[in-house]
Amino acid sequence: MEEKEKQERREDIFSQAIRAGKRTYFFDVKATRTDQYYLTITESKRRFDAEQGKFFYEKHKIFLYQEDFEKFSNGFETAIKFIQTGEKPAEEEVPESKDVTTDESSADVSFEDL
Hints:
It is a single chain. The protein is α+β, with helices and mostly antiparallel strands. It has a single domain, classed as Roll (Nuclear Transport Factor 2, Chain: A), CATH 3.10.450. The protein contains 2 helices and 4 strands. The chain has a 4-stranded antiparallel sheet with strand order 1-2-3-4, with no helix packed on it. The chain is extended, with a radius of gyration of 22 Å.
């Protein structure tokens, strides 16, 4: 029981809800078993199911891990700046990926071997 309580405390580190018209956005900071923080962003929309005559919530969720925060933040800010100003950012050079060549000494591996 003590382990379950510890796990529940670890999962709910911080939460922020933003109501925006028909949608609600939730920003939830959680922790892995190794106490690494990550962010979940949830979009929730209230919908009506005509067949059942009931309301339900449609949810879409994104998991964002700490190692990706800076890249995500930069991309987010760039997209918002474009929407606000119409200015496209300067193209960044993407390094070419190296072609992986196989030589004859490499062994063939099939999924059955794994």
